[in-house]
Amino acid sequence: MTVNAAVRPSPEALAPQLRRQPHALLSLRLDARLRGSWAWIEVALTGMAGALALVGFFTASGTQVARSIRLGPAPGWAGRFPHRFGAICFLPADAAELRLTAVGTAAASVMATGLSCRPMPRWRAAARMLARRPAAVAGLVARPLPLTRNALRDRIRDVLAVSARAYDDQGHAAWVALFDTWTEADFPPPPKDCAIAYAVIGRAGAAALARTLQSLDAQYVPPVRVVLEDGAALRAAVSGLPADYIGILQAGETLPPHATAMAATELARLGRPDIAIADEDEITAQGERMSPSFKPTPNHMLMLSGTLSRGLWLVARGTLLDQLRDDDAGSAEAVRLGLWLRRQEAGEGGFSQRIPYILSHRHPETVAANPDALASVVAAHLARIGAPFTARPGWPVTLGLRDTAPLGRVTVIIPSTLRQAHCLECITAILRDTDYPDLDLHVAIAQDGPLDAAQEQAAAAIRVFPNATVTLIQAESFNFSRVNNQILARTQGEHVLLLNDDVSPIRADWLRWMVAFLSEPAVGIVGARLVYPNGTLQHGGVIMGLSEVCDHAHRGLPRGSPGYMSRAVLPQQVSAVTGACMLVRRSLLEQVGGLDEGYPSAFNDVDLALRIGELGYAVIYAPQAELWHLELQTYGSHYGGDRRPFYQGEVARMVHRWAGVLDADPFHNPNLSLDAMRHWEAAFPPRTAATAAPIAGLAERA
């Protein structure tokens, strides 16, 4: 094996981006005899003078071929050699090289020596990883097993993969020390047209206001600011401020010293959006930081909940003066929310962006917005746009469904074998227990030969319902996309519902909710919230890049839990939803040519959602539409048995076609992990501009 020193980029080469970047340390050529097996990676470090994380990347011909690994303090060395790091990992069969990169405040000064790779028996690797990661193991093992021959083996493989990538749980403080500790030298000169002033809403003389003003005075260059008593006219107060952007703060929200410098750099990088919303966390009276809120790209449906209205907002001065009303007053949360919703009504998407860095801390004395006030802002907006929803006060704000919500004809397409007992039970439950007046349901059986006696009996039971049909499609092999496309061509419903035969209603109004969300012209697809029979979530939207390609958000979360930032229970825009229960506008489905028949088994639903998203339409996760899902009970695993070659080809197509979104899902913050069962935990390291380059991303695999 050969160890090569890497060339470090000069600070000047990184401008105008943030100057603190990861540093490549060493690379290791992998012995071909070890590829496709387990190994122990180890390295010695010198010159450590701060927080540090070590990340390893497997590459071939300079591009990344597998998810990164994290190296932690090597067990047994702590007393004698405190700066020795190691990790258990599986060496990908196609990997030619391991590249080691340092991230954190000590990255610039650290030196690495003695990088080595030693084989490790599979049983020993498994035993050590399972012992180290009991929580991850429990979460994965608790997921229901599909009825496939190799299901248990595949589950164990998933557990080991998560364990191999897991970074030791060190909490938010360790993450802050590694990735959120900055100095003035980390930032380039302030960009033009991004000067920032602040408007602080609070009560004069209050301790919360004093904290906020003190944090503004501590900025690298103290900014201009105005203070507004609750009820003061914000529009008049900010009209004369000499700034390109106005930062809106509630008394008690404080800024770290680097916030203004970083905000200006990010505003320039993002193309100077009308509104930019930064990440935040909480801070205790003792100064301990906790509970980070890593936000998705701002989107209409999630904005209605009010959960994005906290923390530092930066509003272009012209936008603020155009959208602000003279009667806007009260909390900063209500002002921010009203501004965003009115700007959204003005048209043209993409006016707001996310700054994926923590730029404010919320102290205990920060006064939260009155729930009635936030609901009033949302209700006024819903009335102005004629939405079929009402706003219900609370934290977060929730939606109700108007009785006058518009309805359209829905064509339901269910591919099935009609051989398992659950197929008939679920299909008849859809027909019997769905409170929707205008749907036609089509069961499609694709096989080479006529229906057998059991299938005929099940088909007869379905045909009892006047709005249901059963169609036999002659086919030598099953292709989910082709079956749906053939039924699509024979029907005429305004909306098309793709549905699995192992799904049944939990609440009768599930389809009314889905159609109501689709009534907004900007929405192209709506997906449901699906629940396992054991009461845990099966689907809460799809996160791109999760578990290598994509996976369901909130999988395994108890049904009664709100999830991270309440996102398991709030309607929101996502990149994709599952085709197990997906409502699509027919005109768009026809415009993109239906489902891609090059995906016969897996990813056809995700590919469809991404293609419709490319047209500029939103994909919405609607948790009010709640159904049971048995998952993989009819056709089995996408990657088991004779389907495995198809699945591998489908993965390759997805990686090639959608590399950009796999590497950067806009609705999954780059500070959040992409590891299965850990996707609402902090990423080590984050995939932000300040921590990602020059690391090779998944997009480079295409």
TrEMBL record:
Keywords: Membrane, Transferase, Transmembrane, Transmembrane helix. GO terms for molecular function: transferase activity. Gene3D superfamilies: Spore Coat Polysaccharide Biosynthesis Protein SpsA, Chain A (3.90.550.10). The chain crosses the membrane at residues 38-60. InterPro entries: Nucleotide-diphossugar_trans. This is GT2 family glycosyltransferase. It comes from Humitalea rosea.
